[in-house]
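Reviewers of the previous submission asked for a worked example of the structure-prediction workflow described in the proposal, so we include one complete record here. The input consisted solely of the amino acid sequence. No template or homolog information was supplied to the procedure at any stage.
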Amino acid sequence: MHYRIILNIDTKIIKQSLFIVLLTFLLLLAQDTYSQVVVRKVFLTRKNVFDSTNNDWFFAAGLANTLHTVTKKYVIDDEILFESDEELYPDDTEETERNLRRTGLFAKVDIRVDTIDDRTADIYITTQDIWSTHVSPIFSTGGGITSLGGFFREINLGGTGSSITTQAQYRTENNIGWDGYVLANYRRMFRSELSLSLGISGHRYRTTQFLSIGKPFRTLSSFTSYGIGLSNSYGSDFVYGIDNVSRVPYHSRRGEGWFSVGLQRKDRIFFSTYFSLEDIQRLNPSLRQPYDNSGRILFGFSSLQQRFSKTNKLNGYETEDVSLGGWGTAIIGRTFAIGSQGEGTYYIGGQIQQSTNVGKGYLFGQLTGSSGFAKGNPRYTYQEFNGVAHYRFSENMLIASRIRQQTVWNWGAFRQLVLDNDAGLRGYVANGFEGANRIIGNTEFRFYPEWDLWIFRLSGVLFHDIGTVWNQSIALPNTKFYNTVGAGLRIHNLKASGGEAVFRIDFAYNTFEKKFGGIIISSGQLFSIFGNHGFKLPEIFGLNIDGE
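From that input alone, the workflow returned the following structure tokens.
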């Protein structure tokens, strides 16, 4: 009897304990389910280019602000990933801030979450516009060629985030003479996900027209991307010999389309289809390029992993979002002949990227490989490596390097890569070296002293460039490498973004010819010292050549 009573008491205690544990679990589950913060209100403050509370205010700032249209509220609203009375997910504010910066419309973007209680928060968004209208003369020189002209660009037309660009310049390269283009981009047509881009460019030897309409993956949770594109190009290709330049007429018409699906919010997976049709006529058959007069259909299977680090004083003084993680894609497909001059092959390609921070340093690497196959034999085999690294000695001093390598095999078609200032070897004559394969390395020591000159700041650069080009019949050890050393000055416009925010002046010494290689004047840094991981459509790698 005694033992039976003890057993009954223990059973009761156990039942009560289990009930308490179950109740606690349900309460915790309910807390996890319903403790998500809800947005009460979103407060948006839009600031003009010049703000009277900042030290860049000057006597004509008010007039300058009246000449600029502040970005429309709906343009910002379209990038915001949360609304009033909706749940706020942890990454929504950070991604919204990145998306707003990526538009290139703002000098500053700040998002602050003000927690009212355990369940409610107000969000304050502050944006300050950049000066979106750029009118400037063009003067660039280097490698024995000069360009002189004018440039106009409005990247925030009427505050809508759409852009229009026109440029006219006189170029001494290849005796081109007057060269111009007009580009327009209608961002988010009628506030939809679609974007429209169109343009025309031309000079006395070549004219190119293009149009594309598409929906990109705008956010980390976008499910689909699709679009179409058309292009028409005619005129002459430039072919570089040892001591001469020849022009060969051509006419190319091309249509393309794509559709992609993206799964998962993080560690994304993509399935893509790309197709194109091309009709191209070349006067000289020996200049036929891979897959001329061919259609292609490609399938891509890709994955993307990324996190972001906000920083500055890498490529300039503006805030940049460095993507860390990786990208990988596998591509299979088929090309088919259009007419008697086309060719049909099977195709396989792949690309991997990886980046990481190592202490005060950063590493990025990208490896690409592909090949076509016809009757079991490889055709147009291509391999490429891109690497970027930098190391910070302090907040204002760093060293950075970039290497690019491109090699082909079984390439029974015309291919031309040029080694000169535009390619990354400063101080050498334009279009002076050409080949089917190329290696270029650049190293820069960058110094950001933070000297304020109204809306401008300066930075300095010491650099070394090395490079070579060679043909398939030559072994790499038998090629000659060319070097340049020098110093440069950068002028940074704090009211602009991207490449237009940097005016570059480099003084190069040609170590091969042992002489001063000239002054190179251009816009933008020579190279970005970090890579970006992002979605890419399936493609046939290695088809780009240097025409001018």
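The chain has two domains: 38-129, 133-523. We consider this example representative of the routine output the project will generate in years two and three.
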